[in-house]
Amino acid sequence: MKRISLTQHLVEQQRQHNSIPAELRLLIEVVARACKTISHSVGKGALGDVLGTASSENVQGEIQKKLDIISNEILLEANEWGGHLAAMASEEMETIHPIPNRYPKGEYMLLFDPLDGSSNIDVNVSIGTIFSVLKAPDGMTVPTEQDFLQPGTMQVAAGYAIYGPQTMLVLTTGNGVHCFTLDREMGSWVMTQRDIKIPEETSEYSINASNARHWHPPMQRYFNELQAGKTGSRGRDFNMRWVASMVADVHRIMSRGGIFMYPADAREPDKAGKLRLMYEANPMSFIVEQAGGAATDGQNRILDIKPHTLHQRVPVFMGSKSEVELVTRYHRGE
Ligand code: AHM
Ligand code: MG
Predict the structure, then answer these.
(1) Is 246 in the pocket of ligand 1 (CB under 6 A)?
(2) Distance CA 166, CA 97 (A)
């Protein structure tokens, strides 16, 4: 494959599909650059004094890790001054972050989970950054949280960076999904996979099975059938993988198929699962759909959900189409 850089890819998309206005291209490049900086911090580990917990909680009541805060700061600082954004929102900030008045403002809004898979930071297991790009509503002057509450179908770009044995950036602007590997010596993102497609049939599932006793009956049924393997109604064996970083689990599924699940359960009935809609489920669903997969909350397509709060949670079933359809049918009682 001829090696092309992220910049070259974006310029080509802009020319061929007219799908990437110059401002959006700048935005993606700035986010990608910030991910490079985060990757550098992650790679330093204890040598950079970035491991361990901070003495603060985020809006979800979770103890923040030092790298959660560092990554959030890196993304905020990188994106503030470029003139391409109106506001940002993050898992680590209670409310939105409008672009300060000293900088020019643009028409895009950026949401991110700066460091996904926080529980894996201190144990040197793959973690990532997830981001979603929306357009500011027409006529918006002072951005409010309300302006962010658009369904996932309105995303103009989404991506994730994975900090693993290699650092990769997986990106969609609505024209397929493309993967870039960070060339650490050159400091550049090089395209290493074009138009990724998730295999349709799969025998791998990804779920935190320690929650099994709390699940609702449709989830129990689906899981029991997978576990029964060859001897059960599915007639074949399934394999299980759970990294506990959504980015890493979904990245594996992008490569070799599978289904990723974080269902709602009976523990906290008013909290629908663990993952957040706006900056985890929506961008990952956009990517998975663009790669030919599917993503639902057990009832409906995730991208169609009309959000009502910035940090709302959502049950997640995503990956290979046939499995997502089956578990969704069970939840619908079909
Ligand atoms: P985080 O954004 O605080 O890291 O939380 C999200 C993560 C996902 O990456 C992962 O799928 C899930 O939480 C893991 O949950 P569990 O601790 O139940 O394994
Ligand atoms: Mg997360």
Answers:
(1) yes
(2) 31
